[in-house]
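re: ur question from the group chat, yeah i did fold both. here u go
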Amino acid sequence: MGGHRRVKGPLALLAAVAMTTGCGSDDEQACSGEDACSAIRGVAFVSVEELSCGPHNPCHWEVSFFANGEYRWDHTDLSEHGTYTCECGLVHGQGTFGDREGEYDGQTGLLTWEGRAYEAQ
């Protein structure tokens, strides 16, 4: 997937983002996270791969970020709703089934959400 890397676990994701965005440095603008939120606000993303949506029913999962700070994640046979914030290049979701983590890559346009790659619709 051309330059996209899979990162496992929230701590590994945080470390990868810190290395690529300058988090932890004196560069506060790189760590504001507002660029990530601005880029995903009002956008629906679909999974790059077809994933399971029930027994013998592959489909593309979808995650949408709304201007009011809420998100909807349709995955497997579930639809999860919650709120999101951005900090230091990460997207944090607080949803009906727990906390979620993601990262938006402005260079590739890919969103990594809970370890899966998504592209804008």
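okk and heres the other one u asked abt
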Amino acid sequence: MRDEKSPVVNTASPTKEVKILSSPAKDNGDTRPTKRLRTQAVEQINTQVTPSKQENLEVTKLLAAAPIVQSESVEVDMLQKKYIYKLINQTKDSSSRTNIDLIWKAYFNAPDSETMKRGKALVENKTVLIHVVEALEKDNLVMYSNEDGSVILV
């Protein structure tokens, strides 16, 4: 009977079948280079590391991921941009760098007449301050790094 998994080659005789093995038997004493190379290639293929199911799942999740979009949209008006730009100029060092924390501190030390607009604060919290700085970055007035909170005046 013929094995379905192994390929079969028909010879000149219609009744005789020859089976081809997928991996040759290991013969260390064989001096024929082709058989030795084929044996080494099969061993190398068998020893290659295949990614685990967990790694495949992680790659699939990464490829299917959508960019993070902030659900809350904070509208930034021109008055907020002007005032925060003024604070950035006041808190910058000699290399035109400052930090979000320094800007936030300068905002809290400023008089209420500058920080309030129609009885409402220009910047309610630090997140809104970051949104204003990001809006300034979109206008190409500053460069902002979210990693360390540094702001560079352009």
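fwiw on the second one: The chain has a mean pLDDT of 79. The beta strands are 8-10, 17-19, 97-99, 116-117, 120-121, 142-145, 150-153. idk if thats what u expected
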